[in-house]
Amino acid sequence: MFRSLKSIPLVLVITFSAVASAGPLGIGSTATPEMIAGWDIDIRPDGAGLPHGEGSVAQGEGLYEAKCASCHGLFGEGEGRWPVLAGGDGTLDTLHPEKTVGSYWPYASTLWDYIHRAMPYTAPQSLTDEETYAISAYVLYLNDIVDEEFVANRETFARVKMPNEENFYVDNRPDAQNERCFKNCADPKTFEIVTTINGLTPTGHFKEDSGVAANHYEGNPSAASESGISKVMNNTKIVLSDKATVGKGVYDMACQACHNPGIAGAPKTGDKAAWVSRIDQGMDILNGHAINGYQGADGVMPAKGGNMSLSNDDVINAVAFMVESSR
Amino acid sequence: MGKIYEPSLPKLMEAIAAEARGMKGLDRRNFLKGGVAAVAGLASVQIIPKASASSNLPPNLPKWQSHLGPGVVSKPYGEPSEFEDLQRRTVPWLTVDAASSISMTPLQDLEGIITPSGLVFERYHGGIPNVDPDQHRLIIHGLVERPLVLTMEDLRRFPSVSEIRFIECPANGGMEWRGAQMEALQFTHGMLACCEWTGIKLSTLLDEVGVKPEGKWVLAEGADAAGMSRSIPLEKALDDTIIAWGQNGEALRPEQGYPLRMLNPGWEGNTSVKWLRRLEIGDQPWHHREETSKYTDLMPDGRARRFSWVQEANSVITSPCPEKPLKQAGFVEIRGFAWSGRGKIRAVDISFDGGVNWERTELKGLVLSKALTQFSYRTTWDGQPWLLQSRAIDETGYVQPTLKQLRDERGGWSIYHKNSIHTWNVMENGDVFNVQIS
User: Fold this and answer.
1) Which of A113, B14, B148, B317 could disulfide-link A28, Cβ–Cβ 3.0 to 4.6 Å?
2) Nearest partner of B243 among B275, B289, B216, judged by Cα
3) A5 to chain B nearest CA, in Å?
């Protein structure tokens, strides 16, 4: 009796505060406005979330060159294989669509939000609001979406219209309709079997020939006759230098996958026309491009063909083989 | 039937391969590593001193039986046998930097529907943050009655659930839209895993904060360098979204979002934001980078689908596969996985002739909603070539499409959501190659 009397006021207090602020289970503490303000960094297309402050294209240029260009290129063209930020207009319905901020992104707010939360890549959330306005303005400028006088702030930024905005629509799958057929569901006479490109996949963990600089052509006559490059070599009786002979082994393992068929924009080995102007650049540039990778007009050449276990000399030898076979 | 592919293995390689086939497990692997050096001539094959392994075979006493083994807690946290080669693997040329890259689950080595936590594929946009759980907070705010900040301890007080669900990157198979590229199951389908996830239903948390009537969307945000953020419609959030701290019976692995992640069952993996630090309720979606620039599906007319969340029914044969060729003629159980983001797998069919004729397979073990489901077909193989395919049907009646059907709708540049019927070409010698039929 005595004890329960004593506890009555306490119970009342707890009940009152629970009614005022707690949910059904009363777990957790109130997130204060200060806590929320520190973490609430998101921006929406209607401008919600954009902070005070401003930044101009002109201010953005210097900041961009200092903080972004090393990866994304001076003009947003992307250094090496780092993402391209500008260009690609009119490519989305072609066989080489280039999705960039300017050609693809539906909203400018996304740019502010993303740069502020995630860039520069190695120092996320290090930019001030002013810097973010300025750099965002500059990236829009690189994409011809704003002019060089543009000053970005809450009002002006929320009004920027992106050219591709109208071209997004909500997922309308299921689209492809298959039937659960059991007999004679396809006509085998129409089959064309497309095989895997050799050499793109790391297969050392299960495949005997992987990582081996095997001489595919000499070792297997049927493959040799199918290979464009051997044909070229047979026809013109190219005599390879020692370097190129060694390089051929590397080439077979790490380069032929793209450079024999000429996929993804790779110049075909043996195709003189495709190589003339490339060879004119000089061996240093070719070797540099092959070792470090680059984004060219035709496609992406991955560093060392994607095989980072190759030494620089391996790659240089392979380039020698490619160049000597394509002159 | 059209042209059947002939693998372009030089004769020398085949000889080495044949030699290797007679060996098992580690012997074979060591041999193969040696084999790299041995290419120059078969003579060096004899040098590899692994023949002694046979002294463990009957009728001899195996060496591991002739002395005591290590005792309890010799490894406080156990690990796989040294004879196993279980590894996530990546394709180095896919991405420019490892901190924004992907590795794949070795589906070829999985036994059953649960993916061990250490083998779950990885996808980061800014690397793995090293989050101290005592200093981790989840803030829920926006259009709510009671904005809350929750510690991990707070979260564990809520009524919890445990559910087995798959998670799949929508780019799974995305390298193959325009042609067969990957020579291994791990790379064609390995952006996929299935785990038991433990946590709270998001609906429970939303009850606790009280969503205002205007609240229609939830922004989920991670505590990683990418500040990963996605807009989730309230419908999904109230349906089956889980806020998880547990995975396969233990705390989440750092790679999987330790100490707290979102899990949107059946939806593209990117929506299941890891290292979850914030949920904001709003009346519109945010259209952030991962739902505009990325994770939208470009169609041939140049327009793009957004909010393409669901992972449609898919399946693949995991045995045989390129990593697991057929080694002996005679009885063979063909095994594989099927899964659907729309619910349970109802059936899986199999074709040996590239999709001309189909047979029904048997579903094995647990058949759970939005989870990997095993299928099995027993047959014999006498060295004939096969064009092996599997076709999943889910409980909504959706039938996994052919590649041609998908390409007819979507062209070849949409990157994401390629769930078409997959073809393995089994060769006369039992080797298995990834091919496409068009």
Assistant:
1) B148
2) B275
3) 30
Question: Per-residue pLDDT tens for A46-75?
Answer: 999 999 999 999 999 999 999 999 899 999
CATH topology of domain B117-305: Sulfite Oxidase; Chain A, domain 2 (3.90.420)
Tokens of A145: 């979406």
Specify whether the CB–CB gap between B370 and B166 falls below 8 A: yes
Q: Is the pLDDT of residue B27 over 80?
A: no
Residues B313 and B394 sit within 8 Å (Cβ to Cβ): yes
Subunit contact B8:A216, Cβ cutoff 8 A = yes
Residue in the structure block whose two tokens are 């989050």: B131
**Under CATH, what is the fold of the domain B314-435?**
Immunoglobulin-like (2.60.40)
CB A158 within 8 A of CB A47: yes
ipTM of predicted assembly, 2 dp: 0.86
Which residues lie closer than 8 Å to B1 by C-beta, 6 or more apart?
Answer: A188, A189, A191, B353, B354, B387
Contacts with A171 from chain B: Cβ below 8 Å: 297, 305-310
Domain spans of chain B?
117-305, 314-435
Where does a domain end: A167, A192, A210? A167
Query: Is residue B106 a contact partner of residue B80, using CB atoms and an 8 Å limit?
Result: no
Residue B32 has pLDDT above 50, yes or no: no
- Which pair of structure tokens corresponds to residue A91? 């490519």
The conformation of residue A255, written as its DSSP 8-state character, comes to: T
The verdict on residue A172 lying in a domain is no
pTM (two decimals): 0.77
Domain extent, residue A262, equals: 226-324
User: Tens digits of per-residue pLDDT, A187-236?
Assistant: 999 998 888 876 678 888 887 654 322 222 222 222 222 333 332 333 33
Q: How many CB atoms lie within 10 A of CB B367?
A: 16
